[in-house]
Amino acid sequence: LWCWGYNVIAPESSTSWLQVPIAPSERWRSAVASEHSLYAIRQDGALFAWSFNGWGQLGDGSLEFRTDPVEVAGAGCWTSFGTGVYHACGIREGQELCWGWNEYGQLGNGTQGLALLPEPVAPADSWQSISANGLSCAVRADGTLWCWGRSTGDGTWLPGQVPVQVGSDTNWSTVSAGLLYACAIRQDRTLWCWGY
Description:
The chain is mainly β. It contains no helices and 17 strands. It has strands at 2-5, 16-21, 28-33, 37-42, 47-51, 66-71, 78-83, 87-92, 95-100, 115-120, 127-132, 135-140, 145-149, 160-165, 172-177, 181-186, 191-195. Strand 7 (78-83) and strand 8 form a beta hairpin. 40% of the residues are buried.
């Protein structure tokens, strides 16, 4: 795993325009970068996070800045992951979990409270893929599409603190959430978008 770029928020500012190896002794499956924090799933399915943690978005139970990858709390194999600016969501063995900033209900747990550790989304199980940004969206194993947070995709601009099903179709395969909009692909490979 290699990273590079502007690192001004680090305690010891260390911007690098050249690639820097991250935990070179480890092997990684995937990586996701948000505006201020970074995440990676290790080959064994463990999820790690590092950098800015002002809203608990690293999921390690603290608000401490991390210069090295720290494992997100909770054992198990992570299969899908998405991150917003100050919150994150992932799927661990079929269960949907979110943590971090929650002003608009983007953690999907029915509250607007900050979460320093991963908390189950309601309903928590049978999820297939996830994306997070200003809102959070996910596809369940039955092909239904759900969104929550700043906008739910239900035809209103009202935020939702729990997942709301987008339409009634059961043929969604993947989704990508933006700040106030989202796009999703159905199993027939057609692309659908909505939002501001």
